[in-house]
Design goal:
272 residues, mainly alpha, Vanadium-containing Chloroperoxidase, domain 1, two-stranded antiparallel sheet, 2 strands, globular
């Protein structure tokens, strides 16, 4: 446990982290309330969920700006029902924060070779997510597959939204990495700079892409593969001594909600 003398029970940064969860939750709630129930299809043609925010290359800048505005103002769209999962997630985050130092010093190996292997694995897994939009868009273009083309555009858009959010949070929280000061993980340390530990860039990006792609291709097998890969990214960031468990927990939740928002906001309805 961290010393209560140096880390008082009432932590302003904990409220800030819960606010980040509310931010992401709000954007999901905004997507749910902004989109009507899907109309019943009358043909095999794709039906636009919202023609004004349709996923096209030309609309990417416009959609991205609208996404950011919605994400940063999303807490006002929170509903009472969101507390059913937001409160447990906030509690889990608090528990993780209180055990982060112990986990990184007594549980996670500090063997340099082991750590580097996990860093390499996280980079490789993330590389797969980053390559997916290019591959899907290219496949969609070559085969005239509008769904694959949309998946490529929206997964890239989700990751871009995630990058902006996590970079903004890094500049706010300034958390030290596990390798600094015996893994105390202090927040608001200017020395952390833009390389702050919280939130985890890898986790936000991976979960943003996974959530969007899981919406596009909702088969159990595809979702299992996507979320297993995203979990692997988060886990290897911790095993690589790059992030604390709380970092990847919150980052994964925020990324999932951002990806879910992008999918719900911009996708079309595809029928076989």
């Amino acid at each position: 446990m961290r010393s209560s003398r140096k880390n008082p029970p009432f932590r302003p940064w904990f409220i800030a982290i819960v606010s980040l969860l509310a931010l992401a939750a709000g954007c999901s709630a905004y997507a749910q309330s902004a989109l009507p129930d899907a109309p019943q299809p009358q043909s095999v043609n794709p039906l636009p969920a919202n023609p004004n925010v349709e996923a096209t290359v030309r609309n990417i800048p416009r959609n991205f700006l609208h996404d950011q505005a919605a994400i940063w103002t999303s807490p006002r769209h929170l509903r009472v029902g969101d507390l059913e999962w937001l409160v447990p997630l906030g509690a889990a985050t608090g528990l993780a924060l209180d055990t982060d130092q112990s986990a990184m010093t007594h549980v996670v190996s500090k063997n340099p070779v082991f750590n580097q292997d996990n860093v390499d694995a996280s980079n490789a897994l993330l590389g797969g997510f980053i390559a997916a939009p290019v591959a899907l868009f290219s496949l969609g273009h070559l085969r005239q597959d509008d769904q694959a083309r949309e998946a490529g555009i929206l997964s890239a858009e989700a990751m871009l939204d995630g990058v902006v959010v996590e970079q903004g949070m890094k500049l706010i929280f300034w958390q030290e990495r596990p390798g600094v000061d015996n893994a105390r993980g202090r927040f608001f340390q200017s020395s952390a700079g833009i390389d702050s530990a919280f939130p985890s860039s890898h986790s936000v990006i991976a979960w943003s892409a996974a959530a969007e792609l899981a919406g596009e291709y909702p088969s159990h097998r595809t979702q299992f593969l996507l979320y297993t890969a995203a979990t692997g990214v988060s886990l290897t960031r911790v095993l690589g001594q790059q992030h604390f468990p709380a970092d990847v927990l919150v980052s994964g939740a925020a990324g999932w909600l951002i990806g879910h928002y992008v999918y719900r906001k911009h996708h079309k309805i595809w029928m076989e």
